[in-house]
Amino acid sequence: MNETLKKIRILMIESDIRSDAELARIMGVSPQNLSKKFKRNNFTEEELHEFAEALGCDLEINFSRKKSKGETL
User: Fold this and answer.
1) How many domains are contained in the chain?
2) pLDDT single digits (tens) 6-55
3) Does residue 63 form part of some domain?
4) What range defines the domain where residue 32 resides?
5) SUPFAM superfamilies, per this entry (predicted)?
6) I need a labelling partner for 49 at 20 to 30 A (CA). Which of 8, 57, 59, 66 fits?
7) What is the C-alpha R_g of the chain?
8) Coil vs helix vs strand at 28
């Protein structure tokens, strides 16, 4: 399970959303469609916005510079 899916699962618990079927209903998609998204485990930016909306969250996507050898940030 990748970090994005883990975060969605954590936010579901925090939002008292007890099942994938309940999340699907909130998002206005079928449980089968949501299941396919979870199995694919590779979300588009649009899908991430849909999850954020359903979970009552803001979505922040950002880039940060990687550390190179010997460099401290």
Assistant:
1) 1
2) 999 999 999 999 999 999 999 999 999 999 999 998 899 999 999 999 99
3) no
4) 3-54
5) lambda repressor-like DNA-binding domains
6) 66
7) 15
8) coil
